[in-house]
Design goal:
Length: about 375
């Protein structure tokens, strides 16, 4: 009981902090005291869809008509070989019973953006909030590491997701943290998941509606997922499990596997960080982390997977981006980055061109660069 109250109080505090600023531009806040163990927090009393229209764009109703004529078919017919869906497809199929949408927005600490607050202010209608930091391994100090099978199943069940559901995941930057959640579900055996190409920004730019609400149902589900994670790691019983996992270990690598690969070179190691960080000429954003890269690895910044509107590049263009960095698409690849987020964008791009079994080094540079005994290369050493 104490852990349940603590979990709810922690999430409630996050929400309080999100909306407590006296300079907030959003009026008409409603005080809700009954959801999190009688601890008050503020949420918006609005529960409506907001028509968002970009100057010069077509109207929402016309966009809806076009989308329906071009993209209205069931999620059952979607191929898992294609890792993304268009905003037009989602708009036409949003109300289908076998489609669930996840807002998996996450931002770097120095961006000072709050994904939970932004979700409540504007999200795709009916979307659930997936807490990237919260649905994670509680036994490590590394950020948002992959949780255990039991913990993931408990959290996803608490969100109301079942194995029969087709999932579309998006984020607030275009394609960023959504790719991480796409990879997480695939690690645990759920193939019927797609990333929304271009994310929330493309959805809104296309003139499609967003919701601005903090419904008790959405808040309760987000709280329940966090509470379920805590209970599993504390050895406590959790609620009914509606989502069954099937762990696929070949999609996630450990530090030991990366160390072994330096000698054996079974996989080409591709790093999604910026070239400056890879070369060791730019400092790491987290303190206490060495600069440089894993010996033998190559740099393909995750931004090279995307076009100017933050949508995934066509397959032919993606192939060129890897080949020009000396990556052979006929050999196995393992991806890494800073904390296991943008490496998943590389895995997403490689999936589009047919490499559907790319593992991600979960701890990535935050683990490798903090370890006292791991070897590090940099451009300065090579000069």
């Amino acid at each position: 009981m104490a852990s349940a109250v603590l979990s709810r109080a922690l999430l409630a505090r996050r929400i309080c902090q999100s909306f407590s600023s006296s300079s907030s531009p959003f009026p008409n806040r409603q005080l809700i005291t009954s959801v999190f163990a009688n601890r008050p927090f503020y949420a918006w009393s609005v529960s409506s869809r907001v028509a968002y229209k970009v100057p010069g764009s077509i109207s929402c109703s016309m966009s809806s008509s076009v989308a329906a004529s071009q993209a209205s078919f069931s999620v059952q017919s979607l191929s898992t070989n294609e890792p993304v869906v268009s905003v037009e497809w989602l708009h036409a199929n949003l109300r289908e019973p076998d489609v669930k949408v996840l807002d998996a927005s996450w931002y770097m600490p120095d961006e000072k953006r709050n994904p939970l607050q932004e979700y409540q202010v504007a999200h795709i209608p009916g979307a659930l909030f997936f807490d990237v930091d919260g649905i994670s391994d509680r036994t490590t100090n590394l950020p948002h590491m992959l949780p255990s099978e039991e913990a993931f199943a408990a959290a996803i069940s608490a969100l109301g997701i079942e194995n029969k559901d087709g999932l579309v995941v998006y984020d607030g930057k275009g394609i960023f943290s959504a790719a991480r959640v796409w990879w997480m579900f695939r690690v645990f055996g759920h193939e019927r998941i797609w990333v929304l190409d271009g994310g929330l920004s493309r959805w809104r730019a296309s003139g499609f509606d967003v919701e601005s609400s903090a419904s008790s149902d959405a808040i309760l589900k987000a709280s329940a997922a966090s509470e379920a994670i805590e209970k599993v790691y504390q050895g406590l019983r959790v609620g009914p499990i509606t989502f069954q996992t099937y762990f696929r270990p070949h999609l996630v690598w450990s530090l030991e596997q990366v160390q072994k690969n330096i000698e054996e070179q079974t996989h080409q190691h591709v790093d999604a960080r910026s070239k400056a960080r890879f070369d060791g000429v730019a400092p790491e954003p987290r303190k206490g982390i060495k600069s440089g890269h894993v010996p033998g690895s190559k740099c393909v910044p995750f931004s090279q997977m995307l076009d100017g509107s933050q949508t995934l590049l066509p397959a032919d263009e993606l192939k060129k981006r890897f080949e020009q960095e000396g990556i052979s698409l006929n050999r196995p690849v393992v991806a890494s980055c800073g904390t296991g987020v943008t490496a998943c964008i590389l895995a997403l791009g490689l999936h589009r061109i047919g490499k559907t079994d790319v593992p991600v080094y979960d701890g990535s540079w935050t683990e490798w660069g903090a370890h006292p005994d791991t070897p590090v290369d940099s451009s300065e050493e090579q000069m």
